[in-house]
Amino acid sequence: MEPVAIVGIDCRFPGAPDTGAYWDLLMRGADGVGEVPRQRWDVTEFHSQAGEEGRTNTTEGGFIADPDAFDNEFFTISPREAAAMDPQQRLLLQSAWRAVEDAGIAPRNLAGTRTGVYVGIMGNEWAHLHLTDYANVTAQVGSGNGYCMTANRISYHLDLKGPSLAVDTACSSSLVAAHLAVNALLAEECDHALVGGVNVSLTPALSIFYTQAGLSAPDGRCKPFSSEANGIGRGEGVGTVVLRRLRDALADGQRVYAVIRGTAVNQDGRSNGLTAPNRWAQQEVLGAAYHRAGVEPADVVFTEAHGTGTGLGDMMEVKALGHHHAGRSGRPMALGSVKGNLGHTEGAAGIAGLIKVALSLHHRVVPASRYAAKESKQLKLRDHGLRLLKAPLRLPTGPIVAGLSSFGMGGTNAHAVLESAPAARPEPADGAAPGGIGAAVFTLTAPNADALRRNLLAQADAVAARRVPLGPLARSSNRVKTGHRHRFATAATDTRELVAALRESADDPDLLARLSAPPAGRPRIAFLFTGQGAQHPRMTAALYAQSPLYRRFLDEADAALLPHTGRSVRDLILTGDDAVHGTRWTQPALFAVGYALGRTLTELGVRPGMLLGHSVGEFAAAVLARALPLDGAARLVAARGALMQELPAGGGMLSVRAARADLAAWLEPEPLVGVAAVNGPTATVLSGDLAALERIGAAIAAEGITTRRLQVSHAFHSPLMRPVLARFAEIADEIGGTVPELPVYSTVRGRVLDGEAMDAPYWVEHIGATVLFADAAEALLAADPTHLVELGPQPVLSGMVRRLDRPAAGAGPAHVLPVRGPESAGRDLAEALAALYRGGVEPDWDAAYPPGERIAHPLPPYAFSTRTRYWARHSVRTTGPAAGPAAPASVAHREPETTAASAAVRTLDRPGGPADPVADAVLDAVRQVGGYADAEIGPHDRLYEDLGFDSVMIMELKNRLEARLAGVAGLTVQDLLPRLSSVGDLVAFLRESGAAPPGPAHHGDSQENPAFREEERTA
């Protein structure tokens, strides 16, 4: 069969809260079994060493820590619904998310895809406790229970469209689920498959059953293939793997833990007992799996056995394996069972074994068997071609084949054949698109600031703990840690700097707020291209040295200019030649830098919606707007600079702190002086004959107006430019120009070009016309850009824009500076990209990294909050770790995760104020339907997106409002649905509809339905 890759793993087992800890536990041969937690059941009530009827013979088992903790806010599940959910649903939901992240996929990117979900499960003790408590069965209790919901819950919250089913074949459930997922992938029913297994022991029922059936080990420990084997010890846990067809995984460059070569499932039919193992069926399923995988038994280096530690079960399994492997004289197959470390995890046993085998192949070492030192002589393992590992087995290079068995108590058997992952793919070919900005951008998203802070620390700890390559690490964060409202991004040049930035941000709320505020809306980006005067020797030289991407586009501009300049503009810039201040070189050099920066950002996925260039800066803007081709713009700029350089000396420019209109009287008698630029309400530049400028300057200064001579070689944008116009027009006519495809805010027109071509007449006029920067910038600002990105060798325009008078402008757009000055390098460009990402831009991250760094790198999975706890018979909700026996009554409480100050604000910020009875009725009804505390509900909370309401909850909300408010009974759900975007919207709608508190004759829901009031008191 076609191989299937395991590309993502997450798990949580006794003594092992995550995948890394699980592997560590296995390699240490550690024991995850311990006393039954007080949270589960009173062992003194159900324990008897003699195993009396209705009693269990053990007080121990394998239990995971904190199974009651659930981050319901992350999944937008209301506290009331979370409290009703089987903990197995909660554990699987979080595990599935983390496994997808481990596969290098942002979980939200799977939304709407043909991704299948296959869950193995055999325990349903939560349902036994809650669905038989008829007085407390609610809609949430119904959807919170049932095998089908364990898979459907994942598909629903991740919006997955592939097959979704739960499998119960007892102990083989999750390996059978994997078998079904593999077949679905090969049949192309789905393109990704999430396979999970889960087991949580809530009651002693199965422990009693095992005891009464003679299957329970008194010490609660499985001892597979050991002389001390004396029965099953119960275990629990959750695990999820992500599967893909191997060809698809390799094509996407995903990490592959291991490959599934073949699987098989059968049933032993009518054997010597419904719950008894059957050797013949087991050996047949082994043979079927080997055949489907295309391997010989002798190819299998090790097998993860079912290995429960019961005398009969171990004997049957050894004989079934021996049927295929007995001839392996001199090289017996290694045999083990993770149940020796964890106990029998029942519905999760198959996934526990699958993950162990995948990790063993990935790390190329098989952990020792915990009870190998006391191997059972009766099993005669060597005669069957088998051996237990007393020490870890190092696997040689090359392909390694392994087996995995999981046998169900009712007779459904499964076996899988796995193989080590193929050799790592070679580095990208030399022809891969160049990229790299000279630094890395690490990104992280979360639903709220507290979650972001928690995950920043988790990432910092992980990076600090081991040496990792920064580029692949950051790129993986860009691809995986995405999709939530709060966007964090920071630039770094090494991992030490990254760790410091992550921790500093987590520890400083103000800094974190600046680096992660949710985007206000869809970003609208404007590029501002700096004009003459910003140039300096070696401008952007450090960026050129560090950023292959910028280097590519500056080289491109240089190649376009070279035929017209006769000398490399790039080399002139990089060598620090002072000739850059000469007009013939200044203009093409600025054009090259502006073009290269603009193309660098567009290649990074930053798409401008509007463009503005100051004087010569308009040429780069025209190229990006596709009004001029690169070679045409290069020729024009080179000709413009050369022609101006040929003009005689004697011209100058004067900056005046005054409005243009106020200077008219001084300009009128001076025909050789004109207004070169209007950069602001009181920022005007005059240009022309030096002698005339001196006369004007002296007169203006006498009036107390500030002036400043500019260091320029010629009087640009003045009447002194007229001698070059005819020759320039000839060149411009040959090049032409078209209507820009992006909005260009022209500094010739002082507004956006409206269907007007940037053609020869435009560029000729451009030479002598006043630069109407202030007017053009005002028009651009009126279009409400969210970000102004200045592209030039140093910031000039940003300060001019900030000084513009904008009544009712609000906070204004963010200013982004990819280059901040002479020493700017890759870090500043990376910081600019980080700022744009925080503002809502979705960059093309691959362009930010060289081809060799475009590889997947594992990141710690999402760190869920453990603050809220849901447990006990009536769905207790508490804060912090559970301690002691659960209270018999339903108690629900949680301190808000936000600060006390913000919680207080939200509590007081009620629609209409605290005395508003309609608002109070709505808030109370929403609180009761969702199970929220008062401080957790505010007018701006969205019912669906923030509070997790669904159609069932909306109906209940309507019923509660009818019981509390007069004038609501005539409203239908259809009337309400359009008005349910937020709590405040609902309040406003009810007021408009005439809702009011009931009159004296109306007693409210506490009299009409006492159960409501009792629920309020206890829930």
Describe this structure in words.
- This protein has an eleven-stranded mixed sheet, sandwiched between helices. The protein has a four-stranded parallel sheet with strand order 19-18-26-27, with helices on both faces. It has a four-stranded antiparallel sheet with strand order 21-22-20-23.
- The longest helix is centred in the middle third of the chain and has 21 residues, at 583-603.
- The protein is elongated and about 115 Å long.
- By secondary structure, it is an alpha/beta fold.
- It folds into three domains: 4-420, Peroxisomal Thiolase, Chain A, domain 1 (3-Layer(aba) Sandwich); 525-649 and 713-822, Malonyl-Coenzyme A Acyl Carrier Protein, domain 2, CATH 3.40.366; 900-1018, ACP-like (Non-ribosomal Peptide Synthetase Peptidyl Carrier Protein, Chain A).
- It contains 38 helices and 29 strands.
- Helix 8 packs across helix 14 (349-363), helix 20 packs antiparallel against helix 22 (583-603) and helix 22 packs parallel to helix 23.
- Residues 913-994 form the Carrier domain.
Descriptive key words:
four-stranded parallel sheet, elongated, Non-ribosomal Peptide Synthetase Peptidyl Carrier Protein, Chain A, eleven-stranded mixed sheet, 1019 residues
